[in-house]
Sequence to fold (205 residues):
Amino acid sequence: MLKKHIPTLATISFAAALFLTAGIAQASSLSIAGATPISFFGFNGQPSTFTGGYSSGFLGTLVANEPIRISFTYLGSESGYNNSFAFLGNALTEFNTPGDTTASVLVGAGTVSFSFSDDQGGSVTNGDAEKPALGFAILNGNLTPVSGPDFGPFDYVLGFNDSSTGDADYDDFVVGVKISAVPLPASLPLMAAAVGLFTIARRRI
Fold:
């Protein structure tokens, strides 16, 4: 009986490895075009409760390398202005509660269409050139929060710096970027093979 289960366990291990490989393929489907490293200080207030503190990131354009399903989560704001975030008909504002998430939307390959704005007329769209005291930074999405929930790990965190000239700490409106766990075309054969192997293993047990 024991010998009969040995190939079954090997099959399950191989299938799990295929699932992991598919996940890695998905994680690489979002990247930063024209990434320019930056450093800053003063990231504080409500965002740090949910995301942890930041002092570095990148300027650049968030790009989908292939069709993906993506959503954004409001993580907080630390600003005297009323700021907001827009994504293909979905919006997040300071009236939202941290943890509120936009609809998960399927987008094509290319520049991800989103923008930040403030109530003083300042706005920046993904792909725009960086402006003095107005723009957003693309931050590491996997930092451990200082305290409280982080609403799950993110692929990236976006920190908006509104048109106020008082600081440049990229915490005026903060959102998390998350790719949904859906198969991408490149990973479908791996997923199908893994499902088949799990089915065979189950029949042998």
